[in-house]
Design goal:
Bound molecules: flavin-adenine dinucleotide
Largest sheet: 7 strands, mixed
Structural class: alpha/beta
Strand content: 15-25%
Number of strands: 21
Length: 408
Amino acid sequence: MADYDLIFIGGGPGGYVGAIRAAQLGLKVACVEGRDALGGTCLNVGCIPSKALLHASEMVHEAEGNFATMGIIAKSVSVDVPKMLAYKQGVVDGNVKGIEFLFKKNKVDWLKGWGRITAKGEVTVDGTAHKAKNIVIATGSEPSPLKGVEVDQERVVDSTGALELKAVPKNLVIIGAGVIGLELGSVWGRLGAKVTVIEFLDQITPGQDGEVAKQFQRILTKQGFTFIMGAAVSGVEKLKTKLKVGYALRKDDSKHEIDADVVLVATGRRPFTKGLGLEEAGVALDDKGRVKTDARWRSNVEGVYAIGDVIDGPMLAHKAEDEGMAVAEVIAGRHGHVNYGVIPGVIYTAPEVSSVGATEEQLKAEGKATRSASSASWATVAPRRISPPKASSSCWPTRKPTASSART
Ligand SMILES: Cc1cc2nc3c(=O)[nH]c(=O)nc-3n(C[C@H](O)[C@H](O)[C@H](O)COP(=O)(O)OP(=O)(O)OC[C@H]3O[C@@H](n4cnc5c(N)ncnc54)[C@H](O)[C@@H]3O)c2cc1C
């Protein structure tokens, strides 16, 4: 048993950034992480691996579509999927090791194992109890399941499985036109998959500015995406050689089927609080299973705080990081602040789509005066074509995406 000023449960962008900041402010800090690696969803199965594959597949596109235009003459480009996945894993491993180094440098203890709140000011990790004056729940989120669709991570995958496909599927059906579905669809589409997206709503990237979403869908369609909008998936039948995805159109309830080699379920994420002992500890959750917090990230139980994907707000790494920094400041007796009005969001497709602040629709719904200006540049962005690679085996660029930032 050890005594700490503060224990973070969860070593993702919220937990590891907060733990480092708290240690820098002079607190004795530990971070509990059940995975074999620090970095959470973002570094292991989220932002970093997806951006590594987006970068690599973008290079394929450049080599196939734009090199010759720029006077760069290369022999035919081919894709070695296992090697590309190894490149992605190398990027992940480098980032993960970086956090371990920062923990050591800042004297943050990594308590390896799954943590549970077992009493007031007590976190038990694999049978060992640790005392803490303060506890921060930073346990993140997990993919939401879809009724009638069983994920096996081979043929029916969630985002984690879609980062590990052993070969380029011929037909990839993506359920859900959110950020994760469109980014991973871009990866496998650029590598040669025929990508079909089935979306329940009538707009892609729900919550996005309507005009931007419309133009974005148009551009993706030109790149080879097929969209089936306003459709509810009823199930996925697993046959020997293919998958059959059943769906009904909401407008007339007509039933349809589409074949796929791989189905990606990308219907959103839900907070992860399993096994934490929150009910016994009396920590209140909201109707979506998120830990209820006040403006200073305090739960209803004294000494227990929560940050990141497990609380209200956009599920974004930089939002979790900012909350991690701010809660560390608050617990250290300083002023911690996050300006929720200016958290940017980026979809790393090509072109990238970025946004910040309220959309025109949200402002109008709030009865606020708005003024809009159309951006002609949207219409003139050259649509990028996805064309299948021709053969196999090649070598890949070594430039790595920027690491998720731990502030030292
Ligand atoms: C495919 C994909 C791409 C993404 N791309 C981006 C992007 O480009 N930009 C962006 O901003 N965001 C992106 N995100 C979202 C981002 O990953 C999350 O918002 C971010 O990771 C949330 O950080 P967190 O610290 O709250 O939780 P997490 O990163 O989920 O970390 C929580 C950690 O807690 C651990 N844990 C849970 N329970 C326990 C327990 N009881 N004991 C010990 N450990 C526990 C988990 O193992 C996990 O490692 C992406 C997500 C996905 C899935």
